[in-house]
Amino acid sequence: MLVGKRLILIVALVLAVSGCGGDDDPPRSQAAAGEGFPVKIEHALGTTTIPSEPKRVVVVGYTDQEPLLAMGIKPVGAMDWFGQGTFGKWPWERDAWGGKPPAIVSSKSYEIDFEKVAAQRPDLILGLYAQLKKPDYDKLTQIAPTVAQAKGDPYTTPWRDMTRTAAKAVGRVDEGERLIRETEERFAAFRKAHPEAAKEVALVVDAGTAPKSYYPFSSKDPRGQFLDELGYQPSERIDKLAGKTFGTEIAKERVDLLEVDRLFLLIDAPARKRLDKDALFNRLDVAREQRITYLPYASGSQLGAAVAFNSVLSIPYALDGIEKSLEGS
Question: In terms of pTM, does the model score above 0.85?
């Protein structure tokens, strides 16, 4: 991690280089852009002024690249949330990157590498799906104008708000509103096709360690917000246990807490095999009556990850996959 004089020196060098521009600046969308600058954006750590249309955006939030990609903007640097060099491999992101993934600006997946951020010569840094602390925010602002997470509990900002903030930051407000309308229409179509959802309690559960333990997400988490948009009701028991957090781990002995009308399990093949053999889980009515939708997380369709990202880019892909899964259940 950079501190003090070393960071200042790197920033100075970056500014000197970036002032010259370059052929490696990312291509821009054909949509109208750059209107309305300067803009001011309020966030959890203050107010940021963005003086002009950004040309080189680095994202240090784990899903911040997605609303940008949906608007035709390719960040030059991004965090590798899953630590597997996954950019360009997510099915819903692949075409948007066009074979040119961003530089990875994280170390150990979750930690910002300030040197790598500075090396991308950004003129804007976004940390929307993040929990930036003041010391790290201060370091980032020495590199470029930085927009931190929204006020409130971290990692719970609704997808609409994230889209609007990203769109305002890059001068694409109209484009952001268009994406929001289209996504809302997709959710509305699902609710119309599945009116039964309004009468059902549903949970998204990370079952990667099943049957030893489970991690159901609360209605505050983006995964829980996704279910709400589908029309399902939240589990009051899980919300109470989670409190102000975005979920809660439950032991095998409390698998009864997963007894709801519909389960969406984020699970890959190894855990699925273990779960299929677990007598305690399979005594649940939701299991016996096959009211479970299995969403591969890190393999296959990766629908579970698309639900977890819950962005204007991943939501259409997630809805397509879940529709097919429900038709087959």
Answer: yes
